Amino acid sequence: MLGRPSFVASVVFALFLHAQEAAHAQLNIDLIGGGARQIPVTILPFAGEERFTQRASQIVSADLQRSGMFRLGSVGSVRPLPAEPSEINYRYWKNEGAEMLVIGSVIEKADGHAEVRFRMMDVGKQSQILGFSYTITMSQLRVTAHKIADLIYEKLTGDIGVFATKICFVTKNVDRFELQVSDADGYNPEFILAHREPIISPQWSPDGTRIAYVSFERKKPIVFMHNLLDGTRMVLANFEGSNSAPAWSPDGKKLALVLTKDGSSNIYTINPDASGLARLTETESIDTEPNFSGDGRHILFTSDRAGSPQIYRMRADGEGEAERMTFEGSYNVTPRHSPDGKSFIFIHRNEGRFNVAVLELASRQMQILTAGRLDQSPSLAPNGKMILYATEVKGRGILAAVSSDGRIKQRFTAQSGDIREPAWGPLLNNRRKEQ
Amino acid sequence: MRNVLYVVFLVFFLAGCASQGGKSADIEQRDLFDQQQAQRQQEAARQQEAERQSQVMREQEELKRQLEEQQQRQQSQAQQEQAIVRPLSDGAVGESQLKSDPWSQLKETGSLLLKRSIYYEYDRYDIQEEYVPVIEAHAKILMAHPDLKIVVQGNCDDRGSREYNLALGHRRAESVKRAMALLGVNDKQIESVSFGAEKPVAFGQDEESWAKNRRSDIVYPKEPQ
Fold first, then answer.
1. CB burial class (10 A; 0-12, 13-18, 19+) of residue B13?
2. Bridge partner list, A172
3. Of the ranges A61-75, A166-180, A282-296, B88-102, which one carries the lowest mean pLDDT score?
4. What residue of A is the nearest CA neighbor of B155?
5. pLDDT in tens, A165-182
């Protein structure tokens, strides 16, 4: 009983420490390469947005620019800028080379609310393609701008936009490990927890309300589950030996995980309330890194049952024989299904380097997507178009992202310390219904 | 007073009933007695049969135990022979020392017990020949002190997957635990844990650093510092 109050005190102290540091934790994302074919779009400053600290049109532009899939057009010299269709001089914008023109306004309302309006106009056809109005509180301005960027992205590329999603990652500063959540563009970093011992393998629940992760705070790996809604956490698995590699089923009703309680590393499933433990694999070697397919029917995993670590696929109930999926090279680990189930990404050792690769299931063709020395922990965006992963530059851990065709590259940097173990969060519930 | 009288009356009344019932109860009791006797006889027969069976079982188990003992003797003989084949280094633990305080033995100058790490090749968990004497020395002190406990911590270099490395670190720690158990250490004295690539001791990105991180550490949690 004596130990408990001091433990609580240290957690509170850690939280307090963080409150002072939070402002410095923001990530900067730079685009390194661009897509082969860039879609032209012209985003004009929104009328009235200059009165606010965050400019909505700049957030939209930055999102689209960073995706590497768009070429942003000139905002011209005509003033005042149009905010409504009736104010657009189509001939002028056509001469400026604009094909798609995004206009909008931010109007301050009473009691801290604002109305954000935007439209995307086809300059050639002089017709509206998209148009929405949002009534928001000022704290929702960034996420609203990300939603606008998502709508533009979806209309022009045909894919789902992921600008309004979140990511989580682990930062390491000397001996301090923090689990953090931020917007997909690195803004609004939110501190989840901190420890003097390592934190690895965070995984979002499909509804985005919980994060399962592995912590070494009790001098051995234990799987915890953190609830983002109320800030509470629970032990998901603390059996004898190692507890690690949590992976959610797509319906969120189960997690696969790896336990060594029966001797070697085997894959089990457990319910999110820590009940219903069931064993899926029975190996004397290593089975680890389970990952459910989007339809919940299969699990990809890493196993060294044939001598070197390779990727295998089994039924999600563990029945039947596992099928070996990778044959190229002697080290293939960390498989992650693509959302459409047509491919999976993984880490492949290539002449001493560890790189993100993708394997097409139909053709069994492998493509290496990155060129770092030590690329780790790949995580696919929920639209399957970008892969967030950990890498290092000059001995410092950073995050990077690559498009699933390898053409577009982004680099995420923090002001200090290492960043690692990224996990891309799911699409928000209301958006998934729209799809 | 009325209540007391009522109770007394009730007692007499019930006693009368009981004595009446007693007569018929005698007859019934006899019948029951006969049945009980038969049951007792049956029970005795059953017990005899059960005893015979359990004796057979005991005999079988004894035979099995003798067989296992014989196998164990052969195994430990084989192990002892193995151990004898290997030359003990100068720092080896002498039999006479084993009875004394383990903590001073663990710190004795030149002792193999000062060596607490076992190193591995890349992506391997088998114990190389040069570390066998270290494992034997720790096994010996554990066997001499059945209350003594160790934690074997498996570690990896930081290349590749953190989760795969965690599993590999577990295998490294387990390989030490199994080797000691084969030498006769009670495996309840050994806890194996893995830190994967999370607890490096060397931070360079070269083979020298990686080799230092691919190791199992033998830790005596209660050892005075």
1. exposed
2. A177, A418
3. B88-102
4. A220
5. 999 999 999 889 999 999
